[in-house]
Design a protein that fits this description.
The chain is α+β, with helices and mostly antiparallel strands. It folds into 2 domains: 206 residues, Helix Hairpins; 92 residues, Urease metallochaperone UreE, N-terminal domain (HSP40/DNAj peptide-binding domain, Sandwich). It has 8 helices and 12 strands. The strands form 4 sheets. Strands 1-2-6-5 form a 4-stranded mixed beta sheet. A 4-stranded mixed beta sheet has the order 7-8-12-11. A two-stranded antiparallel sheet has the order 3-4. Strand 9 and strand 10 form a beta hairpin. It is extended and about 80 Å long.
């Protein structure tokens, strides 16, 4: 996927204020609008200009986009993938008028990777809230949403967390100003990845006598090479020594909840083998399961005695042909 330099698309500096971005967009829109433009590939250019404006004219999207760094770092047609959970902690609003008014589904894959979840989060928040409006001149405040990273252990134990959310707004001069706020969140035991935690009244302020909007926090688990989840099931990579793998026997395992359990490794290791611990996945009325994925780990021979142990092993298994399946 190609990195999109939105500042270059509009022909503005990264320090450009809101007025400069608006002027640049209007100038290019007049130049490339398909209804009037004589330019070659006007429709393609217009789509690029619309996409750039959709990000840079929105303070929240622009602040998150800037966090990825200068587009110059991704020039030259290099393949680009945003880091996992790159936008965790960024707060976005779903305010009416906060959208671009354009069909974002027609934007590039780059836009979809960065901001596609925002539209999905707005829709999910709307379904969770059920919709409510103000009366007369009153208008309910905008719902806000953000992705948050939790430890997998939080799903097992729950508890209170003080989280820092980052946002952005325009000052009186139209310059981008970033800000932070802290929210106290009760993490429910059994929370799943993708689940929304609703903080009532923590969104945008209402107009008139209307109430404030809500804040919806979308849960993600911090990436960890040791495990991954599927719904409520947890898959934990379990390293085993050669003697444990072949001879089998009891070993102690620390589960994501922090508890230590004893499991029996079957003799005669087979690649891909999993051990299932029923009900030890993410808690619920019907909890998930914990699957231990056995992985063979070879010790490094640092000393002469350890190296000799490997030579003795080789002699004991002189007939072993590890590459027999390859015809060697």
């Amino acid at each position: 996927m190609e990195f999109k330099d939105y500042y270059k698309a509009l022909g503005v500096e990264r320090t450009a204020d809101a007025d400069a971005i608006k002027k640049a967009y209007r100038k290019l829109a007049r130049k490339y609008h398909p209804d009037v433009s004589k330019e070659k590939d006007a429709a393609v250019h217009m789509a690029e200009v619309n996409e750039a404006n959709a990000v840079l004219s929105d303070p929240e999207k622009r602040a998150a986009y800037d966090a990825l760094g200068s587009g110059a770092a991704h020039a030259g047609g290099q393949d680009f993938r945003p880091p996992p959970h790159w936008d965790a902690g960024y707060e976005f609003s779903g305010a009416p008028g906060g959208d671009t008014g354009m069909d974002e589904a027609r934007f590039s894959d780059f836009f979809e990777q960065l901001f596609g979840h925002a539209a999905q989060a707005r829709q999910a928040a709307g379904r969770a809230r059920g919709g409510a409006g103000g009366e007369g001149g009153a208008q309910r405040g905008a719902d806000h949403h953000a992705r948050i990273e939790l430890e997998l252990r939080d799903a097992y134990l729950g508890g209170e967390r003080l989280l820092t959310l980052r946002g952005a707004r325009l000052d009186a001069q139209g310059r981008l100003v970033q800000h932070e706020r802290q929210v106290q969140v009760a993490i429910p035991k059994g929370v799943r990845e993708g689940q929304l935690i609703r903080l009532s009244g923590q969104g945008g302020p209402g107009l008139g006598a209307a109430p404030a909007g809500d804040l919806f926090l979308e849960v993600e688990f911090k990436p960890d090479a040791r495990w991954h989840t599927q719904d409520r099931d947890v898959y934990l990579r379990l390293p085993v020594a050669p003697w444990e793998a072949e001879l089998g026997g009891p070993i102690e395992v620390q589960t994501p909840s922090g508890a230590t359990v004893e499991v029996t490794v079957p003799a005669h290791f087979k690649p891909g083998r999993k051990l299932r611990l029923k009900g030890r996945g993410i808690p619920a009325a019907t909890p998930g399961d914990l699957y231990l994925e056995l992985q063979l780990v070879l010790p490094t021979a640092h000393t002469e005695a350890q190296q000799q142990a490997y030579r003795t092993l080789a002699q004991a298994f002189a007939g072993f042909a590890p590459r027999a399946s390859q015809g060697v």
